[in-house]
Amino acid sequence: MAVREIVVYPEGADVLRKKSEPIGDVAGPARKLVRDLKETLNAHPEGIGLAAPQIGINSRVVVVRLGGHEDEESEPGPPRTLINPEIIELGDERRDFDGCLSLPGLYGETVRPHYLRVTGVDERGEPFDDVFEGFDAVVVHHEIDHLEGVLFIDRVDRPEDLYHVRENEDGELVRVSLSGEDKSSSKERESALDSLSL
User: Is 61 exposed, middle or buried (0-12, 13-18, 19+ CB in 10 A)?
Assistant: First the structure.
């Protein structure tokens, strides 16, 4: 197992924007890829999902930590592997929190399905046909997007929906919109938006 370096956007746009190829055989290299994805995700406790393109491999594999949400006290579970995941059904689209290890420090509000039915195989090669609901559906949808070369910034409706989290004078964490920062940072904001190619 190895903790791999996470590909960061926009520097890694070539791999992050490329559509991933299906896994043919869940053995050898695929098992190593799964182990590396899990180890890398576990090394980043702030993350709840990781797709193979985020460690530089355009294969259709993701790992997700389900059962947690930013507004709840519950901790997400251990990484679960989805190989060649395919969305069969989706619904209940709503706005929710979004963020990405490949876009560190940047967060947003996106509209994503809160109901997903997904098929694929697990790391043992066993087929699954599962329903994900609520924030778990958001996480799975976000990771499957990575396999299509889609980033969460592509799903942001307005620049105002992108933000950083900073500590205020009272030591509390607060959201700071990219479009709501003071005038002195307007060049920084324009540069950030340009680099994100919104």
Answer: buried
At the top level of CATH, which class does the domain 13-155 belong to?
alpha beta
State yes or no: is 148 an active-site residue. no
Burial zone of 128 (CB within 10 Å; 0-12 exposed, 13-18 middle, 19+ buried): middle
Question: What averages of pLDDT result for each successive group of 10 residues across the chain (198 residues)?
Answer: 93 98 93 97 96 98 87 81 98 96 96 98 97 97 98 93 90 83 40 45
Among 143, 167, 181, 188, the one annotated catalytic: 143
pTM score over 0.85: yes
Inter-CA distances, 154 with 16, 88, 93, 191, 194, Å: 12, 22, 16, 17, 13
Domain map (residue ranges) of the chain: 13-155, 159-196
